[in-house]
């Protein structure tokens, strides 16, 4: 088969698997798991074949007219360059791992058939975004992912946290999608086409009349989808969904879509220095703010959620200095180790019976109970902290090198201010990342207290996936010298200056956190036996997770933090801890600035509808009823009365005629 045919099958197979899984969910439940895994696995194999055939060479372009529009046509088009080929491999491989892991994680879940079908549809939508060569077709995949995330995040709909999180994710991302859609139409109007290749040609020829306006409109959608400041608040709350869904969203779909979109259309954004500066500031605030927030979270998955926001900030920072090679390289390595982190966190939550780091810190022997999750999560955390030679080190260094070149004027593709902004924020974020990664590892695996409950080894479907993802988390960064062809022949190797600065910042963050933990443990370790409601670990993992999420707020008063005086994050952040734990009160700000005015407006509309509009409607009805009563009184059924009224009426008419005649004659 041709490369084009194989590329068409890559998103098509998971889509067909989703349809078949939904159809077989009730009639043939035994086929649900094979229909979830086999199409996604086949898609991953085909994506690898497409990447090998593409080989970082000429872009594969193919198109057929989808529908005439009367103005700008819409084509069913493929546009596969080196970036698209590698990102598609990441998406398909991570989705396959998630599907395999989910067969054990949700083994007794009655809603597993619909869950598996939605994951397959989610995967197909992201692959459509990756391979699409037409912006309108890309938008279809973009919006399907939003719908899928709503249902998947709300999978545990019995819990109020899941219901609220799914609605919040949908509304916040839609808030960004409105200007995003306007920006797409404005871009296509200037370019005269929705085809990505045509848009890039129009940018090169200078035919985009308002590049800054278009870029800023598109950035609003990217901020919502990729959880960048100020539209990032939905992502931590989305941790109320199943852990495999969190892995899929954070590693390979949804949040990666926005970064990938900017990388695909980077010349559009590079045409506006103002847009790149805005993107740099957005990335810097996101990196630093999310790092501080992660250091204060108690829910292990919320720590990882803020970590994702910060790592996406690194990618956005690379794009802000017009280096899409560094951005996509970090996207690939991050997808591997972040999927591993979330899937390992699912094992940890199941073994500990809680999602609270404060509760885990008061257990001993957790690392011995789950050695697979312990060792693989250690690898992933080292990659997250960018410690050499793990994958995150090389990709994060690529971002810092790109920022350094722009800051020092070696690259003129972006403003110097953007380079300095990303470089300084990136180094500070490196320190914070190592700090919260160290804190998570110490609290989860170096606790002291009663023995962690033992429920035997986790299923092979869960542990095998962890070791599979540990391989790229460890070694993917070492391929930087072989990926140049896929990344516009742009070198990705680290430099001595940024390597020393970045690694040094990470080591400082890790050492400070370890020192704070040791000091607090020696001083207060046995004085604060923090109470926690621990779910029963002998239940299926999905049940344990749902109970753990639901029990966290009643026990600790907050889904985000716990009143734990032995937490090293509390010591390191000092008075900033309370604000960081709540995400710097952005939700409260949005509630005051947007939610309350909308609710007030809705209340006003309700009042006007009930008290004004309904009053007129009820008045018209009452008037008709009153008139009917009067007319009914005249209907007595007495013939003499009718004749008397008729005679009286005739007399009145005769008198009126005579009077009017005299008046007219006198005039």
Give structural notes.
This protein has helices at 3-27, 32-54, 82-105, 112-131, 135-153, 160-191, 196-204, 211-225, 234-237, 243-251, 255-264, 266-270, 273-294, 300-320, 324-352, 357-360, 366-369, 371-384, 391-407, 416-445, 460-475, 496-524, 541-556, 568-573, 577-581, 586-634, 639-666; strands at 60-67, 74-80. The model has no long low-confidence stretch (mean pLDDT 88). Helix 3 (82-105) runs antiparallel to helix 10 and helix 14 (300-320) packs parallel to helix 19 (391-407). Strands 1-2 form a two-stranded antiparallel sheet. With 667 residues, it is an all-alpha fold. The N and C termini lie far apart (103 Å). A hairpin with a 6-residue loop joins strand 1 (60-67) and strand 2 (74-80). Helices cover 73% and strands 2% of the residues. The chain has 27 helices and 2 strands. It is a multi-pass membrane protein. Its main location: membrane. Pfam families: Proton_antipo_M, Proton_antipo_N. The chain crosses the membrane at residues 6-24, 36-56, 76-100, 112-131, 137-157, 169-188, 208-224, 245-263, 275-296, 303-322, 328-352, 373-394, 414-438, 459-483, 495-517, 642-663. It is found in: Endomembrane system; Membrane.
């Amino acid at each position: 088969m041709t490369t084009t045919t194989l590329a068409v099958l890559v998103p098509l197979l998971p889509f067909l698997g989703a349809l078949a899984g939904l159809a077989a969910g009730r009639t043939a439940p035994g086929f649900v798991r094979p229909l979830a895994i086999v199409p996604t696995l086949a898609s991953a194999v085909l994506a690898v074949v497409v990447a090998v055939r593409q080989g970082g060479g000429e872009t594969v372009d193919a198109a057929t007219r989808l529908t005439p529009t009367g103005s700008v046509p819409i084509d069913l088009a493929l546009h596969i360059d080196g970036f698209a080929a590698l990102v598609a491999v990441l998406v398909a491989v991570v989705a396959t791992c998630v599907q395999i892991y989910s067969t054990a994680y949700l083994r007794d879940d009655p809603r597993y058939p619909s869950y598996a079908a939605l994951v397959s549809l989610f995967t197909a939508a992201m692959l459509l975004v990756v391979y699409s060569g037409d912006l309108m077709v890309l938008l279809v995949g973009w919006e399907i992912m939003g719908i899928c995330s709503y249902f998947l995040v709300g999978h545990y709909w019995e819990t109020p946290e899941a219901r609220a999180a799914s609605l919040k994710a949908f509304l916040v991302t839609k808030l960004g999608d409105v200007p995003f859609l306007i920006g797409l139409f404005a871009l296509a109007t200037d370019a005269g086409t929705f085809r990505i290749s045509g848009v890039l040609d129009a940018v090169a020829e200078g035919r985009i009349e308002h590049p800054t306006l278009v870029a800023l409109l598109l950035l609003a959608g990217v901020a919502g989808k990729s959880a960048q400041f100020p539209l990032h608040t939905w992502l931590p709350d989305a941790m109320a969904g199943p852990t495999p869904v969190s892995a899929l969203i954070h590693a390979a779909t949804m949040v990666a879509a926005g970064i990938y979109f900017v990388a695909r259309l980077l010349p559009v954004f590079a045409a506006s220095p103002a847009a790149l500066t805005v993107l740099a500031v957005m990335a810097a605030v996101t990196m630093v703010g999310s790092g501080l927030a992660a250091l204060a979270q108690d829910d292990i998955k919320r720590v990882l959620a803020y970590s994702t926001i910060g790592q996406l900030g690194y990618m956005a920072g690379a794009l802000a200095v017009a280096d899409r090679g560094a951005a996509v390289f970090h996207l690939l390595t991050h997808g591997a180790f972040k999927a591993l982190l979330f899937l390992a966190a699912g094992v940890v939550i199941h073994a500990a019976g809680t999602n609270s780091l404060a509760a885990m810190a008061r257990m001993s022997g957790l690392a011995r109970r789950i050695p697979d999750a312990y060792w693989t999560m250690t690898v992933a955390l080292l990659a997250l902290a960018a410690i050499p030679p793990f994958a995150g080190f090389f990709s994060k260094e690529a971002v810092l090198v790109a920022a350094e070149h722009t800051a020092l004027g070696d690259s003129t593709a972006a403003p110097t201010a953007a380079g300095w902004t990303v470089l300084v924020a990136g180094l500070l974020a490196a320190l914070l990342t190592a700090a919260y990664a160290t804190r998570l590892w110490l609290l989860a695996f170096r606790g002291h207290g009663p023995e962690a409950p033992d429920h035997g080894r986790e299923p092979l479907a869960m542990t095998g996936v962890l070791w599979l993802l540990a391989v790229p988390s460890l070694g993917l960064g070492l391929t930087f010298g072989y990926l140049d062809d896929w990344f516009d022949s742009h070198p990705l190797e680290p430099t001595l200056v940024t390597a020393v600065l970045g690694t040094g910042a990470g080591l400082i963050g890790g050492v400070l956190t370890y020192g704070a933990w040791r000091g607090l443990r020696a001083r207060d370790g046995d004085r604060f036996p923090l109470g926690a409601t621990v779910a029963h670990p002998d239940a299926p993992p999905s049940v344990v997770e749902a109970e753990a999420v639901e029990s966290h707020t009643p026990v600790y008063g907050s889904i985000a933090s716990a009143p734990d005086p032995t937490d090293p994050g509390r010591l390191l952040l000092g008075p900033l801890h309370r604000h960081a734990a709540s995400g710097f009160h952005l939700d409260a700000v949005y509630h005051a600035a947007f939610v309350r005015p909308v609710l007030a407006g809705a209340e006003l509309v309700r009042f006007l509808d009930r008290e004004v509009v309904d009053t007129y409607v009820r008045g018209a009805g009452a008037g008709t009823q009153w008139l009917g009563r009067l007319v009914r009184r005249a209907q007595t059924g007495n013939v003499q009365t009718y004749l008397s009224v008729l005679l009286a009426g005739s007399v009145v008419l005769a008198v009126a005629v005579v009077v009017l005649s005299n008046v007219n004659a006198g005039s």
